[in-house]
Specification:
- The structure is a single chain.
- By secondary structure, the chain is α+β, with helices and mostly antiparallel strands.
- The chain has a single domain, classed as NADH Oxidase.
- 34% of the residues lie in helices and 22% in strands.
- It is built from 6 helices and 8 strands.
- Strands 5-4-2-6-8-7 form a 6-stranded antiparallel beta sheet, with helices on both faces. A two-stranded parallel ribbon has the order 1-3.
- A hairpin with a 4-residue loop joins strand 4 and strand 5.
- Helix 2 packs across helix 5.
- The structure holds flavin mononucleotide (FMN).
- The site of flavin mononucleotide (FMN) has 11 residues, from loops.
- This is SagB/ThcOx family dehydrogenase.
Length: 192
């Protein structure tokens, strides 16, 4: 099998995680791989007009070497930058429809976008076009996270079933201004 064929064969959603902490470098590797510039200065996913409207916030709960907090992936810096200290994962879990277990995961990525700004940018293409592109870009990044997980052996899943009002309240302290949450993706070790 080719590398990609093998990765796609191993791609899966994980909905049970070990509580063991993961290392902060795992998260740095993850965000740099799925959203950062490659050796050639390119990204692993496309973006309409190369706007890169979808941002990643990393919520840490049990991560060795860093406090429980919300971190923003800073693309030019290619690093995780603290936004607000605190353990926010239980509140995010409460905002999901069916993923209470998320509260005990080591960490989660929260994908988000300013869809109103994107709609303004793409107004010439039609109503809500920017919003549509943000959801498509979210899917591209999410698949990259799945492929990273298949390669590294860590677990993830795309949690799209979230209560919009509850997640907005849970994320109020750390979501970029004007953003809505488009996906929540836990990261952790898969039980044997
Ligand atoms: C758009 C989307 C939304 C999803 N939302 C949830 C969710 O809210 N909760 C959940 O447990 N799984 C969610 N999943 C994961 C699916 O349950 C999972 O992809 C499906 O069962 C197929 O399993 P696989 O990914 O291992 O192939 C979602 C998947 C997608 C693509």
């Amino acid at each position: 099998m080719t590398g990609l064929t093998d990765l796609l064969a191993r791609r899966r959603s994980t909905k049970a995680y070990r509580r063991d902490p993961i290392d902060a470098d795992v998260l740095r590797d993850l965000v740099a791989t799925v959203a950062g510039p490659s050796r050639h200065g390119r990204r692993g996913h496309g973006s309409a007009h190369a706007r890169y409207d979808v941002h990643i916030t990393v919520i840490t709960h049990a991560v060795t070497g860093v406090a429980a907090a919300a971190y923003r992936y800073d693309q030019p810096l290619d690093d995780l930058v603290p936004v607000t200290t605190g353990d926010f994962l239980a509140a995010v879990a409460d905002a999901t429809i069916d993923a209470d277990w998320l509260a005990d995961c080591p960490a989660a990525l929260v994908l988000s976008a300013d869809t109103a700004a994107a709609d303004d940018a793409f107004a010439d293409q039609g109503k809500d076009r920017g919003t549509r592109f943000c959801w498509i870009e979210t899917g591209l990044i999410a698949q990259n996270v799945y492929l990273w997980a298949a390669e590294t052996g860590f677990g993830t899943v795309l949690l799209g079933g979230v209560d919009d009002d509850a997640i907005a309240a849970a994320a109020a302290q750390w979501l970029p201004p004007g953003h809505i949450v488009t996906a929540v993706m836990p990261v952790g070790t898969v039980p044997h």
